[in-house]
């Protein structure tokens, strides 16, 4: 299904272009630059499903909408269970995290399902190119399904980049910025990137992944759990933090 969508003619994909931070749609290569320095070019395209996506699903592909809805349903179910596990692990009252994500897939929550396609690398590689620049994800957690091409690297606590090799049947979970804020850094957002492969065979092969970014409801305040309430202090909302990250990385 991912192949079918990304194999559509560019003009058709472009007719479903994502228009702003709130809308679903196609993101062409170089529209989103995650690493904001060194004039890096990022070779990937994606299709994002966010909030209320009525009218944004390409009708050129049979059963596309149904498959996406199924993925959203399965992802939402996983998140609910995972958040409960986090509540137990962090000693939080029952429902603390689940209640913060109660409006997933509505206009009041910006969680996003993203299909990503990294095209084969051209023979003449432009300068400063990567497939995906170094960054941390913005929300609570991210789940990632990757194909068997590999290439994803994550930074460990010793500041070393290590390969996140694909494991058949496994999904990868990343901690995002907002969970780091909630836990005062006890759980740290994981820096990650996808470089141009060194091996010739892998350079010429596309890479695909399916990513689901879980974000708290728009009005959730990003206050650390352990910090006492202080009326004199102000905190960002989930919406404001995410919006500021999106407009600094997207060229809508
Ligand atoms: Fe990411």
TrEMBL record:
Boundaries of every Fe2OG dioxygenase domain copy: 108-216
The cross-references to Pfam families, in alphabetical order and at most eight, read: 2OG-FeII_Oxy
Q: Which UniProt keywords apply?
A: Iron, Metal-binding, Oxidoreductase
Q: Which PROSITE patterns match?
A: FE2OG_OXY
One annotated GO molecular function is:
oxidoreductase activity
The UniProt entry, under InterPro entries, shows:
IPNS-like_FE2OG_OXY, IPNS-like_sf, Iron_ascorbate_oxido_reductase, Oxoglu/Fe-dep_dioxygenase_dom
- Family listed: Belongs to the iron/ascorbate-dependent oxidoreductase family.
PANTHER family from the xrefs? 2-OXOGLUTARATE (2OG) AND FE(II)-DEPENDENT OXYGENASE SUPERFAMILY PROTEIN-RELATED
Name of protein: Fe2OG dioxygenase domain-containing protein
The species is: Armadillidium nasatum
């Amino acid at each position: 299904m991912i192949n079918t969508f990304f194999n559509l003619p560019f003009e058709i994909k472009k007719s479903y272009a994502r228009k702003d931070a709130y809308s679903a749609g196609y993101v062409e290569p170089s529209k989103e630059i995650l690493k904001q320095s060194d004039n890096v070019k990022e070779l990937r395209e994606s299709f994002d499903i966010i909030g209320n996506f009525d009218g944004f699903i390409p009708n050129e592909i049979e059963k596309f909408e149904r498959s996406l809805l199924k993925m959203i349903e399965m992802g939402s179910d996983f998140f609910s269970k995972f958040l409960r596990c986090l509540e137990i692990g962090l000693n939080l009252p029952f429902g603390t995290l689940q209640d913060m994500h109660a409006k997933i897939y509505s206009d009041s929550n910006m969680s996003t399902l993203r299909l990503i396609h990294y095209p084969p690398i051209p023979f003449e590689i432009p300068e400063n190119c990567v497939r995906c620049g170094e960054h941390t994800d913005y929300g609570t957690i991210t789940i990632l399904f990757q194909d068997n091409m590999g290439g994803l690297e994550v930074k460990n606590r010793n500041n070393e980049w290590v390969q996140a090799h694909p494991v058949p049947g496994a999904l990868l979970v990343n901690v995002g910025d907002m969970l780091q804020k909630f836990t005062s850094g006890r759980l740290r957002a994981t820096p990650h990137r996808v470089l141009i492969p060194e091996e010739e065979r892998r350079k010429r092969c596309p890479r695909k992944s399916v990513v689901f970014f879980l974000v708290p409801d728009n009005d959730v305040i990003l206050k650390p759990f352990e910090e006492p309430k202080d009326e004199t202090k102000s905190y960002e909302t989930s919406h404001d933090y995410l919006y500021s990250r999106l407009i600094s990385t997207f060229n809508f």
